[in-house]
Amino acid sequence: MGYVSTPNFFNRNAPVQTVPRGDVLQSVDTYVEAQSIVNRLTQSGYPVANIAIVGRDLVTVERVLGRMTYAKVALKGALNGAWFGLFIGFLMGVTATGAETVYVPATMAIGAGLGMLFNLVIYSLRRKRHDFSSVQQVIASAYDIVVPNGTAEAARTALASAKKD
């Protein structure tokens, strides 16, 4: 599995985010292919510190998972609330002296009830606008592997000598 970096918003000395400039080593259709090329360059000993994978032509894709019903919303809320209740129960149970072990199931039940109620209220308010569940993602139609200016030929040579995944 690959590593995806995120910007550090707390570092005031971080460089300004700009689109990397340089020579395009290769363009591929998927991020996995781009990662594979950078991995092959790494394995060949090529210095990859200034290489960038740049996604082009970004689109937002929303994949519909299914229709939402009150039963599904209630169950999801109950499960989420129960997990939160379990966490709170364990925190309370750590400081307990024995008889208070009832905290865990009690907090799970309370969490499940509150989670169910909260989810049902939110769903009722949004139902006319959004009656289905979905996930959104941003996808690029192509990915460029960008190397510093003047180093593309050396990178191509290193890539040719590296074994394929």
TrEMBL record:
Pfam families: YflT (PF11181). Keywords: Membrane, Transmembrane, Transmembrane helix. Residues 24-96 form the General stress protein 17M-like domain. The chain crosses the membrane at residues 73-96, 102-123. This is Unannotated protein.
